Amino acid sequence: MAARTAATSSGNRSTEPLPAIDDIRAAQDRFIAFWGEMGTRWGVQRSMAEVHALLFIAGEPLSAEEIMERLSISRGSVSTTLRQLTEWGLVQRSRAKDGRGRGERREYHEAEQDVWKLFYTILRARKRREFDPLIEELGGCRVAQKTARKNDRQRQHDQKIDELLELCRFFDGLANTISKSGKGIERATKILAKLLGSVS
Question: Is the pLDDT of residue 70 over 50?
Answer without folding.
Answer: yes
